[in-house]
Write a structure and sequence with these properties.
Shape: globular
Order of helices and strands: HEEHEEHHHEEHEEEHEHHHHH
Number of helices: 12
Largest sheet: 4 strands, antiparallel
Oligomer: single chain
Distance between the termini: 65 Å
Radius of gyration: 24 Å
């Protein structure tokens, strides 16, 4: 047994099991606390992951391993949802940019004619295709950040589920994506690592796409509008909300003026906005994970203030009322983050900069009114 092979190096230990995982909380014997070469070899042979919890003592270590093989994933479903969501985002973007979605086939058309019509239709919707590639790339990076870190801790996590949306009711063609954590988080270290990985991975891709898109965007001089960035739907201008990060990137790349966003820049804007939504310190959103990891049960008080803030901001932009309602629905009426298995184990000192930087990212990406053109 793996534990029998490594336990001789411990002064004492405690084991627990939860949904197919074994968690060993141990104190290493002083003579092996370096760790010794023998302990290092035993740790290398451990069929899982481990980390030191030195804030609880210089010899404290946590080991985790899976007790059962991972479930057989329905990869066909994940691929199907990804492709379907890609298609709905593409169609939504094409419609947003004024392309007709009608694809009429003349009577008696042969294969060559159909192929020519399809190639022409795709060429006409090239900008919509670019938007779809960019936005799906941002969502995929965000979810894979969570997925990779979850697997690092032997957390049973599903591949990403992408959520398509009819472009007739959702003008970007998707409700986003998520992964399922099918085993519990052990402690706040794991929570902060898994919670922060998604927003930062998605942000890196979003800012890169935003930068490329801004360099392709049209800059208008003269009197500024409602905000300094907008898109046109048909002949109607729609201004988009600003944030500290968006202002900084736009000022660095295009300087002064109002920017008509290129489709890639629009995808970057949405990517940053989605990052901000996820970083709100509510329930089991990424921001809720981060704040709970930093301050424990005090997250509940901050979460209530944030939720009431959404209600108040809803008087300016009604979409916040929908988001506040979804938070309650997904959390089954709870704004407080659920406890981890070992809530009293402190996070390492190295995780505090990660948590604080992620909290600062929420401030940098926050916009109180994302769609001023739709304000009431």
């Amino acid at each position: 047994m793996p534990l029998k092979q490594i336990s001789p190096y411990f002064s004492y230990w405690r084991t627990s099991t939860a949904l197919g995982r074994e968690v060993v909380d141990a104190v290493v014997a002083p003579e092996h606390g370096g760790p010794s070469q023998e302990l290092s070899e035993a740790l290398d042979a451990w069929p899982g992951t481990y980390y030191w919890s030195r804030r609880e003592g210089p010899h404290r270590i946590v080991l985790i391993r899976s007790l059962r093989p991972p479930p057989k994933e329905r990869w066909w479903l994940h691929v199907f949802l990804f492709l379907l969501t890609f298609a709905t985002v593409w169609m939504a973007a094409a419609q947003l940019m004024g392309q007709s979605l009608d694809f009429r086939v003349p009577a008696g058309a042969n294969f060559a004619t159909l192929w020519g019509l399809l190639v022409a239709w795709v060429a006409d919707s090239a900008e919509g295709l670019g938007f779809a590639v960019a936005l799906m790339g941002i969502l995929l990076a965000h979810e894979m950040g969570h997925y990779v870190l979850a697997k690092r801790y032997h957390i049973d996590a599903s591949p990403p589920y992408f959520l398509p949306a009819p472009w007739q009711i959702n003008f970007i063609g998707t409700f986003g994506a998520f992964i399922r954590l099918r085993s519990p988080i052990v402690d706040r270290r794991q929570l902060i690592d898994v919670g922060a990985a998604g927003p930062w991975a998605g942000l890196v891709v979003a800012v890169g796409i935003l930068a490329v898109g801004l360099l392709k965007s049209q800059v208008l001089t003269g009197n500024p509008g409602v905000t300094q960035q907008l898109i046109y739907i048909g002949q109607v201008p729609f201004y988009l909300g600003d944030s500290l990060l968006l202002t900084a990137v736009r000022s660095l790349l295009v300087g002064e003026g109002t920017v008509i966003l290129h489709p890639l820049a629009l995808a970057g804007w949405f990517g940053i906005f989605v990052t901000m939504l996820n970083l709100m310190p509510l329930g089991q959103l990424d921001g809720g994970h981060i704040l709970y990891a930093l301050v424990g049960r005090h997250q509940a008080a901050v979460g209530k203030l944030m939720w009431y803030g959404l209600v108040l901001m809803g008087f300016q932009f009604h979409g916040w009322w929908i988001w506040a309602g979804l938070i309650l629905l997904l959390g089954r009426g709870r704004i407080a983050h659920p406890s981890v298995l070992e809530p009293h184990r402190p996070i390492p000192a190295t995780r505090w900069p990660v948590g604080l930087a992620t909290a600062a990212l929420f401030i940098a990406t926050f916009t109180a009114n994302p769609l001023p053109s739709l304000s009431f």
